Amino acid sequence: MLINIHTHKDCQQDVICIQNLFPHTTEAVLPDKPSGGRYYSCGLHPWHIEEDGFPEIKEMLIKTETIIQRKEVIALGEAGLDKTIKTPLEVQEEIFIKQVRISEEYRKPMIIHCVKAYNDIVKIKKQMKAEMIWIIHGFNSSPQMATQLLDTNCMLSFGPFLFEQKMRAPNVLKKLNPGSIFLETDDGKRTIEEIYQRAAELQNITKADLKQWQQANFEKVFSKK
Q1: What's the rounded mean pLDDT across residues 92-98?
Q2: Does domain 2-220 match CATH 3.20.20.140?
């Protein structure tokens, strides 16, 4: 089966996926019990954080901690940092660090949203000595930054940017070990089949080999120790 590590849409049939949900919308969506290859992530996105919204944020963090304990919710996120939004970075960092603590307590990997804040993500990962793997979704930075993230026990997820030659993602993916990556559709129009085909071409491996690597990566990150 194909694996879609991060999507905002309903999962395709015969695809293992992690559907992203937010704490203010999650309870009405989650099933009563896990079903097939459909899993979920839940976290407070930096876009949903406002400097004057701390009462609501506290409530959403409590809700996130409750939801993350459910068996079918296998990752916390997407959470992270975004330097292109109005919310001050220090406010974002405070909420992000709280979510890192939840991730560590309940032993759930994190799916990270990061825009122009990769160095800050690396700094926090090191300072907190976070043990859980962080998956940087929609990675689109330099090879040097990819190396820094991989060296701090992160993995990189690639999606629709692989089809845009002006982006850095295609050239970075060419150089990476397939054991360090995931694939995703995010909220784009591309199917996970298209993402796999493009990724296999860039990595110069067969789609069958790529599927095996993705399965091994998924088991490594999400298997219960």
Answers
A1: 97
A2: yes
Instruction: Please give the structure tokens belonging to residue 169.
Output: 């993602």
Residues 6 or more apart whose CB falls under 8 angstroms from that of 47 comprise 82, 85
Q: Any idea what DSSP says for residue 162?
A: G
Strand partners, 39: 18
Question: CA 136, 77, 132 angle in degrees (round to 5)?
Answer: 65
Domain positions in the chain are 2-220
The stretches of 111-222 forming alpha helices (DSSP H) are: 118-128, 143-151, 169-174, 192-203, 207-222
Query: Model confidence at 223, in pLDDT bands (50, 70, 90)?
Result: confident
Q: φ, ψ for residue 55 (rounded to 5)?
A: -60, -45
pLDDT of residue 36: 72
Q: Which three-class secondary structure state does DSSP give residue 7?
A: strand
Token pair recorded at residue 49:
């954080």
The CA-atom distances, in angstroms, between 170 and each of 123, 159, 198, 201 are: 26, 10, 9, 10
- Residues 60-71 have pLDDT tens digits of 999 999 999 999
In this predicted structure, the answer to whether residue 150 has a pLDDT above a threshold of 70 is: yes
